[in-house]
Amino acid sequence: MTVAMASRAVQADAAHRQRTVLFVVNAAWFFLSHRLPLARAARENGYDVHVLTDVSTPGEAEALSREGLTVHHARIARGSINPFGDLRFILRAMRVMRLVAPALVHNVTVKPVLYGTLAARLVGAPCIVNAISGFGYAFSHESRWLLATVLRTAYGLVLRSPRVRVIFQNDDDAHEFQGAGLVSAEQSVLIRGSGVDLARFSPGPEDPAAPPLVVLAARMLRDKGVGEFVAAARLLRERGCAARMVLAGPLDESNPAALTRAELETLTSAAHVQWLGQVDEMPELYRRAHIVCLPSYREGLPKSLIEACAAAKPIVTTDVPGCRAVVADRVNGLLVPARDALALADALEMLINDAPLRARFGAAGRVRAEREFAIGSVVRQTMELYARALAANR
Length: 394
Prior knowledge:
Order of helices and strands: HEHHEHEHEHEHEHEEHEHEHEHEEHHH
Number of helices: 15
Number of strands: 13
Largest sheet: 7 strands, parallel
Number of domains: 2
Radius of gyration: 22 Å
Shape: globular
CATH class of the largest domain: Alpha Beta
Distance between the termini: 30 Å
Helix content: 40-55%
CATH superfamily of the largest domain: Glycogen Phosphorylase B
Structural class: alpha/beta
CATH architecture of the largest domain: 3-Layer(aba) Sandwich
CATH topology of the largest domain: Rossmann fold
């Protein structure tokens, strides 16, 4: 190889690395359900896309491979604080980053944000984007104040850098982080959720012959308000309110707030609530639903609710960060206090008995989805953030 050829090869390699993005996500299933459209858009915009994640099934591996993504495996324990396991993840992330030399590292969810940012800063990655998709388990209950304090301190240590940009999904989280001095306003960007496919989640007419179907779509976690949903179902049944109450979502045993299969089966059988487990065809379930419910304790921006908006379904949810970013009370749904099964039952009963109100709320939700939550808008805003961040850190 001549000197000129070697020089051109070095220049080509440098140009390639300048267009490389590395996503760091704790679980492949989450990446596939929440970030895949973004990865596709990055590829279409000329980026070489790599993903560092925990691939737990052959199906996940096949799905990632079909998308043409370069996958780097790493195990990260979401439900525990194991310093040895966490250190192994940090070291693994550093090795991958040295190998890939990404121009931009995009970390998603709590541990990847903390450990991915630390690894990226240690190896000198020029640009880091962090997606704060809610505060999660530690911030959803006052009894977890010690863990929340530790996380706040950790966030403050790793996020304050001119190389770091932070995506927030709702105003509450952005104001809380900025108010605590964890990030600056200049670092912060508001992008509302991971987006929804407006064509896939489309409105459909109610079946007037079917009993009202109320759906809670989420992982089976206490913090999603599963217990309150079941308690509300019991109250509605005692009142003689004819409705079919359904839970749709998988167990998540690695989450500290997880319900076990035995606990869930005991809860649902006592209240005559049906648990469907993992549902792959959510658009069809939403088309059949009359009401979508999420009595969560705290969210980033819940995907199930923006999908409900797109499907023109009225929503009953809690007046907490994340949920109230999707639902305007008495506009496209009803807001109730968190952990209040009685208020939840009252709100559900109101909508179960009022079809015109359901239609009005549903239509307003569809308008809001088109205006604020369309996947194309989320992707465009994120690609624009990439371009600004890369330009600022050259």
